[in-house]
Amino acid sequence: MKIKKLSANAKKVIVLCSMVALLIVTGTLNFVLNDKIGQTGDGEVVTTAETFFTSCRAERETARAEEFALLDAILTSDTSTDELITSANEKKLELIDVIERELVLEGLVKAQGFEDAVVTMSEDNINVVVSQSELTSEQVAGILSVILDETDYNATQVVVVPYSEE
User: Is the pLDDT confidence value at 37 over 90?
Assistant: First the structure.
């Protein structure tokens, strides 16, 4: 039995269909989560902050899944050069590193007494959103200290934002 190789166009169609499917799943999750604002199944009240942080994480995971899908498409394409494949592999490793570092930083920020936190890293800066309506200078300094100790960013590249439900 012969296995037929997919053409470059067929692979592009598959990647595009996968991204559309991810977009539909994200939209559905967003609708379901927004529909449940106010109560959980056991009658417990869900705050806007909980929904905000859950939504941020879901959007971040969806964006990362799309990036991985595109990189995988490059890796499996017959038309990809060795240089492009090497670059795609390096980008995947960088993404994995960023994901791990964001999770560690979120845990360290929460360990300082914040109920929840979302950390997003880019090449130029780090954004930290914490579930507190106001922050004291000591709290900001504590968050900044953790970020600077765990990363190569400098203080001007770190943005700390309090999240208010109001």
Answer: no
